[in-house]
Amino acid sequence: MSRRTGKPSYQLSAPDTSRRRMARVAVVVATIGLAAVLVGGAAGYTANRPDGVESAVADIREAEAKRDSQQIVELTATARRLREEISPILTALRADAPPSGQPGPEQARQWRQTMLRAAEPFADPPSGTTATNVARGGLRSAVEQASLAVESYLLAVTGPATQRAVLTELAKRQAVQAAAAWSVAATQLDQINIDAGQGHQHVYLDTGPGGGAFTPDGAAEGSGG
Questions:
Q1: DSSP-assigned letter for residue 3
Q2: DSSP state of 223
Q3: How far apart are CA 150 and CA 172, in angstroms?
Q4: For residues 79 and 122, what is the distance between their CA atoms, to the nearest angstrom?
Q5: pLDDT tens, 173-189?
Q6: Mean pLDDT for all residues in the chain
Q7: Sign of the C-alpha dihedral, residues 204, 216, 145, 125?
Q8: CA pair distance 82, 118, nearest whole angstrom
């Protein structure tokens, strides 16, 4: 029996090299596409992710906003307390002498002590934003001007009688200027409270009309925050 043999080589089917080539191309294309997706995603994440500097700046701004908001609350509370102490003094200094006569030296000395206490909160002020510093500086200037008015009046009632009228008039003008300076600071204080989300806070002196002082805008307390 003859040995079984296979088909001659010329009758065998040729390998499908084109199909294999296409398969390899498809794999390469898929690999490149996947790499592109990964690279693009990484690039997008990196582009959208805040870097260390931006994150640090955001943290600083957030801390500053919190600190400033607390300072505004404290400054407003201080202004309300001082208003109750200063308003009666400036009202008395601005008024014409009553029939019973001018307040005497003892009253003037009490006013001086009140003004010395009123200046204490501004002796070592904290550092805040520019807007808050302006409000605080304005209140401090108003207190200083009111203190000068009290000193002038004390000189008027303790000095020579010939100088009393002149010094009393000087104290009156200084009291008017103190009230006007306070009203400017109170307007700034109102604005920074609004900007901080706490609404209108009207801390104006109750010294009566006149003198060119600013007055509250009529908005309800706490509104507009």
A1: P
A2: T
A3: 9
A4: 11
A5: 999 999 999 999 999 99
A6: 83
A7: positive
A8: 6
As given in the structure block, the two tokens for residue 46 are 């990196």
C-alpha span between 136 and 68 (Å, rounded):
12
Q: What pLDDT, in 10s, does the model give residues 72-83? A: 999 999 999 999
Q: Mark out the alpha helices in the chain (DSSP H runs).
A: 17-48, 52-94, 105-119, 130-158, 164-195
Contacts of 223 (CB under 8 A, 6+ apart): 199, 200
Four-residue CA torsion sign, 113, 115, 118, 119: negative
| Distance in angstroms (rounded) separating the CA atoms of residues 87 and 69 | 26
- On the question of pLDDT at 116 being above 60, the answer is yes
pLDDT at 189: 98
Tell me the three state secondary structure of residue 122.
helix
Q: Percentage of the chain with pLDDT > 70?
A: 76
What are the pLDDT digits (tens) for 130-164? 999 999 999 999 999 999 999 999 999 999 999 99
Q: Rounded distance, CA 33 to CA 10, Å?
A: 41
